[in-house]
Specification:
Elements (H helix, E strand, L loop, with lengths): L7 H23 L8 H21 L8 H21 L9 H26 L8 H20 L10 H18 L2
């Protein structure tokens, strides 16, 4: 009997559980040290992760030894950190306990899942036919948009906000992680 394929929702939840586990372990080691990141620093962190993915896709070789998938996982976790920071602002010290950080993580992970389900319905599983390199390019585009919104002080005329771009980065990165599983 053939193994039944997992639904997009189940695959998404598996990747998010993997991300959550890593996030929780890093919280143990570092606490919520990311609370100190100002928006521009967080955007630059996302940028270097996405640029590394693109570099590895083009060069087809990693001299550090870590592959592309761990960078997609990092983008997911930093995307959630971004959502927390957008809604909480940055801090000068670690100002939340690990339990609260995990509660916030779970809240934004659920929101990302709900958004993916709506978009996946409307786009009819189009992500499955896309190349992984397209997710990378879309993520880099979203990061450039975030940079420009930051440069404008958040004063946009018709564009979605930074939080919407973080959500899209999370979802594209989950798709990349699923494809590379």
């Amino acid at each position: 009997m053939a193994k039944e394929a997992l639904t997009t929702e189940a695959q998404f939840e598996q990747v998010m559980q993997e991300c959550r586990s890593l996030f929780e372990k890093k919280l143990h080691d570092y606490k919520a040290s990311w609370r100190i990141l100002r928006p521009s620093s967080l955007t630059d962190q996302l940028f270097i992760k996405a640029k590394r993915i693109r570099s590895l896709e083009i060069k087809k070789q990693s001299l550090v030894g870590e592959g592309i998938r761990p960078e997609f996982i990092a983008l997911i976790n930093y995307g959630i950190v971004g959502l927390i920071q957008v809604n909480r602002g940055f801090a000068d010290t670690v100002d939340i306990p690990n339990s609260e950080a995990m509660h916030l993580y779970d809240q934004y992970a659920r929101e990302a899942l709900e958004l993916m389900k709506k978009k996946n319905h409307d786009y009819d599983e189009a992500w499955r036919s896309m190349r992984t390199s397209s997710y990378t390019d879309f993520i880099l585009t979203k990061i450039e948009r975030i940079k420009e919104i930051e440069n404008l002080g958040g004063d946009t005329l018709v564009s979605e906000g930074i939080d919407s771009n973080y959500m899209d980065i999370i979802n594209y990165a989950v798709f990349g992680a699923i494809k590379l599983q």
